[in-house]
Write a structure and sequence with these properties.
Distance between the termini: 46 Å
Number of strands: 12
Helix content: 40-55%
Number of domains: 3
CATH topology of the largest domain: Rossmann fold
Oligomer: single chain
CATH architecture of the largest domain: 3-Layer(aba) Sandwich
CATH class of the largest domain: Alpha Beta
């Protein structure tokens, strides 16, 4: 059977095509009882709006922004590259995406940037930033002004805002299970390294990791998290102090998305004693680490899927339609040298 058209809907509701157009586009000038009748007929005849055709007729385009940290390494570069890649296919769907980078350590600057966005120039923003009251309030204000928001990879959500990324608690628990099984009956201490524990993803991963280790591997002792803040000197200093204070470190878990800097320092400080190392995200460096045996396992999420999912969700929000939840679920992937 052919799908019902707007003409079929107008005939079923007993109204003009112009009235149907106003109702479908939430424009004023239609009585409330008429709006109700049109919506009842939508359900009755199974009308599904062809949004692509409607947008083409109105020359409607969608403009999305990915707001990401200014500082970052290979994973951030990969994410930005996937935004550029997505644009090659988005253009045919009248959608466009660009990237802006901000100082993630300054919540006031993030809030100011979000507050300055123009609803006439931006339809949706995917935000990758540490959580803060300032960022939370600025995002809420954006939604009130008609700009859709999603939280990308790390950060807080509020209201009905959507998070795009893996389940970080489950990812940390997965790291804990892998660490315990790799170490078998070995006793010792586990070093946990993060760029910052202000990031929601790091906090949730640490919680999941601790739950598994504490419950099932009592012979292993997890040390307090070390924060590098992406600074080479600080990274070398805190790792050297920890390794000097604890000679029985048998495992290292890197919570953050950028493993290159701490892993280079670990190899330099203790080349003769190889601990089990589990890291996050597939980058040229971590891939090489898996192949060489420096890294034992990677827990990853597909940056291309992250970008495409964020765009689909923002587009659906703009069109006031539901998303396909199973399509937008970001999977936790485990990489070993054997399945690269």
């Amino acid at each position: 059977m052919m799908r019902p058209t707007t003409k079929d809907l107008a005939k079923a509701a007993g109204v003009s095509l112009a009235t149907v157009d106003r109702v479908l586009n939430d424009r004023p000038g239609v009585r409330e009882d008429t709006v109700k009748i049109v919506h009842e007929m939508i359900e009755k005849i199974g009308f599904i709006r062809n949004l692509s055709a409607a947008n083409l007729a109105r020359s409607r385009s969608y403009r999305f922004l990915f707001l990401v940290p200014r500082t970052g390494d290979q994973f951030l570069a990969e994410l930005i590259a996937r935004v550029a890649e997505a644009n090659t296919t988005l253009a045919s769907d009248m959608s466009f995406a660009e990237v802006a980078q901000i100082h993630e350590s300054d919540p006031h600057q993030i809030a100011d940037y979000l507050s300055a966005l123009d609803p006439q120039a931006v339809d949706g923003v995917a935000i990758m930033a540490p959580e803060s009251p300032q960022a939370r309030d600025a995002k809420a204000q954006l939604r009130r002004r008609g700009i859709e928001t999603v939280t990308l990879i790390s950060g807080q959500t509020s209201g009905d805002e959507v998070f795009v990324g893996i389940d970080n608690h489950a990812a940390g628990a997965t790291a804990g299970r892998l660490m315990g099984r790799f170490l078998a009956d070995r006793r010792g201490k586990l070093m946990v390294i993060a760029e910052t524990m202000r990031a929601r993803d790091s906090l949730e991963r640490r919680l999941g990791f601790d739950e598994i280790i504490n419950a099932d591997y009592p012979q292993l002792n997890v040390l307090p998290s070390l924060e590098t803040h992406g600074d080479p000197d600080r990274t070398e200093r805190v790792l050297a102090q920890t390794l000097a204070s604890h000679s029985d470190i048998c495992g290292i878990y890197l919570l953050g998305s950028e493993a290159r800097l701490p892993l280079q320092k670990v190899a330099h400080l203790r080349p003769e004693a190889k601990p089990i190392i589990i890291a996050h995200e597939r980058t040229p460096f971590t891939e090489a680490g898996l192949r060489s045996g420096q890294i034992d396992a990677l827990i990853t999420q597909d940056p291309g899927h992250l970008v495409r999912s964020a765009v689909r969700i923002m587009r659906a929000r703009c069109d006031r339609r539901e998303v396909l939840a199973s399509q937008e679920k970001i999977r936790i992937e485990i990489l070993l040298s054997e399945n690269l």
